[in-house]
UniProtKB/TrEMBL annotation:
It comes from the Bacteria. It comes from Knoellia flava. GO terms for cellular component: ATP-binding cassette (ABC) transporter complex. The keyword Transmembrane helix applies. Its main location: membrane. Belongs to the binding-protein-dependent transport system permease family. This is ABC transmembrane type-1 domain-containing protein. Residues 68-262 form the ABC transmembrane type-1 domain.
Amino acid sequence: MSTTTEAVPKKKLSPRRRAQRIRWVQYAILGLVVVVLALTVNWSEVQRNFFDVEDIKLTFTSGLGTAVKNTLVYTAGAFVIGLVLGTVLALMRLSSVGPYRWIATAWIEFFRGLPALLVLLAFGSLSIAFPGLIIPFDPYGTVWLGLGIVASAYMAETIRAGIQAVSKGQVEAARSLGMTAGIATRKIVLPQALRIVIPPLTNELILLIKDSSLVFILGISASGFELTKYGRDLGNQTAGLTPLTVAGLCYLFITLPLSILVRRMEARQKKER
């Protein structure tokens, strides 16, 4: 008498369990890669070239504070100019007057298409084209104008999107109360638009902090060095990369809190919607 055994069907994994297994496999691969890298890296050479203790001390005592200050001053001035010009350009872009729109569009497309390095170089060479021309607060004024004009082209589009996100009903309500178009824009539209675009504007600020490293093209003196130029010159003296490493970490200490702030503001805006 023969007996037959029925095959027990395999239980399929749920999508959640399958995703968990894939994730654990990815973690394992990542951990393996980290272990392999840790075992193959020449740590003594890394320490000597990038984290030399004596070079770190020299970097902190040879003017790092001035370089950090210059980086922040360059960034702040360029951001203010970019914000003011960007707001004006955004309003011109939305204007019903054709020439205003054409000028704003040409400005935005032109300066968004040019590398910031070339714009800085152009402003640094203005005295050649216009003999006797002196930009106030040089070299700060030159950097503020160069980076600020480039930033204005990007901020203009961000602010324009914020203005268009404001409900038209609020503008109509303001006009029905007797406000002129200009007053309604200044008191009703712009405050709300700027509140909406604070996160992307903060991202622009972070980009400006990093773009300040392009100031080296102007051939500024030691008193005007920003972090990257300071790290490069000191690295040439010490024949190592430790000063540049310290400069890079300074950029991180400046930009990471801003990045965290952006994420929190974006999360808060999502909750409010």
